[in-house]
Amino acid sequence: MTEFNEVLIETVDLKKNFGDLEVLKGISEKIYRGEVVAVIGPSGGGKSTFLRCLNMLEEPTGGKVIFEGNVLDAKSTDLNIHRQKIGMVFQQFNVFPHLTVMDNITIAPTLEKKISKAEAEAEAMELLKKVGLEDKANEYPRKLSGGQKQRLAIVRAMAMHPDVMLFDEPTSALDPEMVKGVLEVIQQLAESGMTCVIVTHEMGFARNVADRVLFIDGGIVAEEGTPEQLFDHPQNERTKEFLSQIL
Amino acid sequence: MGPSILDVLLEYWPIFLQGLAGTLKYAFIAVSLGSVLGALIALMNLSKSKILSAIAVVYVNVLRGTPLLVQMYISYFFLPIAIPALNSVSKEVYVLIALIMNSSAYVSEIIRGGINSVDKGQTEAARSLGMTAKNTMVKIILPQAIKNILPALANEYIAMIKETSLAGTFMLYELMYTRTILANKYLSWQPMFIIAGIYLICTLGLTYVVQKLEKRLSVSD
Which terminus has fewer CB within 10 Å in chain B: N or C? Predict the structure, then answer.
C-alpha cells in the first residue's frame, strides 16, 4: 500500500464486549487517506462492530480510536465535530421519515455547521443530481424505493463534507434489482478519492473497488491484503473456508 | 319510585351542565399541567444520570401503584400540615395537586414510550452526522415521537374525565358532585343514570375523535 501514506483513522488494540460476549478482541489497524478498505467476514465476527467503533456509535471497551490525530472519546463534546467528518451509511438507511428528501440532506449542515439554508439547498440539489434523485427533492422518504433511500442516505452524509465514509452493509437490506444502483454510487465516490471503509457481503464489488480487504472473524483481523491476495491466494484457513462457502 | 329520569334531567339540567363543565375543566387542568410535569419526569427517566432516573422511576411507580383516592386524601390532609404556606389557598388546589401528579406519572410513561418507539437507527443516523444530543432529540426524535404521544395523551384525558369523579368526594363541583346536591332533594337513583350517561357520551365521543385523529396522523407514515 505504498501510494497511501497519511493515516486517517487508527485503531489501537480496539476491544468491545457486549456483556460477557467479546466481540472485538483487539484490533490494531490503520486506514489511510484516499484508501478504500472492504471489510468482509462471517456474521457475528465483529466487522460491523469494528466499523461502528470508528465513529463511537459503539463505545469501545478497551483500546482507542484515533481520527486525524485525535483520540475519540464518547463522552467528549468534540466528538460531534469529529463525527461531522466521518460519514456513515447504514444497512437500514435510517433516513428521516418526517423530513423531505431536501430537508434530510440540509438539516445537519444548517444546524451544526451554520451553513445558510439557500447554500445548503443549492449544494443538496447538486448532490441529488449526481445520484439521479433531483426530481424527488420535495418528496417524503416513504415515496422512495429502498435503493433511492440508500442513495439519499449517502448524499445526506456527503453534504457534511466528510473526510471518510463508513458503509455498514449498505446493500444487504435492498431488493436485488436495487443493489447495482447503490453500488455504482459508492464506486463513484471511491473513485473520486474519498476514503471509504465498506463492510460488505458483495465479494465481486469488494474485489472491484477495494485497495485493501480485511477479513474479520472471531473479533480479530484474521487476514488482510489486496483483493488479489485475499480472494485468489488466501493464507488463513478461516479465510479459505469462508470464501469457499460464499463464492 | 319518585320522578322519572327525564323529569329530573329537564328540571335540573343546569346543575348537570355545571357539573360537566367542572369535570372537563379539572380533567383538562390535570392533563395539561400533568403533561408539563410528565415531560420533565420522562426526561429525568431517560437521562444518563442514575440518580435522576431512579427518582423518576420511584415517582412513577408510587403514583401509578397507589389509588388516586388515597393520593387525594394525603394531599388534602397532609399537604397543609407539611407546607403551611399552602394553608391560605383554596381546598380545590390540594385535590388538583393530586390529580396533576397522578396524571404526570401516566403522561411521563406515555412520553417515554413515544420516544422509545422511534427506531434507534434514527438517533444513530443523526449522531453520526455530528448532530448534538439536543438537536437529535428536538429535530429528529420528538417530531416522530409526537405521532405516538398525541393520541395516547388524548386517551389519558378521556381516562382523567372518569378519574375526576373522585374530586366530588372533596366537594369540588364536578359531575359526581351533582349527586350530592340532588340527594338533598331526595333523588337517589335518577341522577346516577344521568351522570353515567353524560360520562359515556363524553368518553365515547372523545374516543371517536381520537380514532379519527390517529387515522389522520398515520396517513403520513
Answer: N
| Count of CB atoms situated within 10 Å of the CB of B50 | 8
Complex ipTM tops 0.85: yes
Contact B130 A96 (CB under 8 A): no
Q: Choose the mutation target among B117, B124, B129, B217 for the interface with A, i.e. most A CBs under 10 Å.
A: B129
Please judge whether B132 and A90 are an interchain contact, meaning their C-beta atoms are less than 8 angstroms apart.
Answer: no
- Rounded to whole angstroms, the Cα distance separating B130 from A113 reads 10
* Mean of pLDDT values over B97-108: 96
Contact A108 B132 (CB under 8 A): no
Residue in A with minimal Cα distance to B123: A94
Q: Going along A58-145, which residue ranges are E strands?
A: 62-67, 70-71, 86-89
DSSP-derived pairing of the beta strands A212-217 and A36-40: parallel
| Chain B residue with the nearest C-alpha to that of A105 | B129
pTM: 0.85
Residue of B nearest to A162 (CA): B129
- Residue from the list A83, A92, A140 with its beta carbon closest to the beta carbon of B130: A83
Q: Give the model confidence (pLDDT) of A90-142 as tens digits.
A: 999 999 999 999 999 999 999 999 999 999 999 999 999 999 999 999 999 99
pLDDT at A2 over 70: no
Structure confidence at residue A50 (pLDDT): 98
Give the pLDDT confidence of B139-182 residue by residue, as tens digits.
999 999 998 898 899 999 999 999 999 999 999 999 999 999 99
The answer to whether the Cβ–Cβ distance between A82 and B130 falls below 8 Å is yes
Q: Which of residues 201-220 of B touch A (CB under 8 A)?
A: 220
Report DSSP state, residue B168: G
Going by their DSSP bridges, the two strands A195-199 and A164-168 should be labelled as parallel
Q: Does B126 touch chain A (CB under 8 A)?
A: yes
B130: nearest CB among A92, A153, A160: A160
DSSP secondary structure, chain B, as one string: --S-HHHHHHHHHHHHHHHHHHHHHHHHHHHHHHHHHHHHHHHHHHSS-HHHHHHHHHHHHHHHHS-HHHHHHHHHHHHHHH-GGGGGS-HHHHHHHHHHHHHHHHHHHHHHHHHHTS-HHHHHHHHHTT--HHHIIIIIIHHHHHHHHHHHHHHHHHHHHHHGGGGGGGT--STTHHHHHHHTTT--SHHHHHHHHHHHHHHHHHHHHHHHHHHHHHHT-
Q: CB-based contact (8 Å) between B144 and chain A?
A: yes
pLDDT over 80 at B217, yes or no: no
Cell numbers for A65? 480510536
3-state secondary structure of A217: strand
Q: What is the pLDDT of residue B15?
A: 95
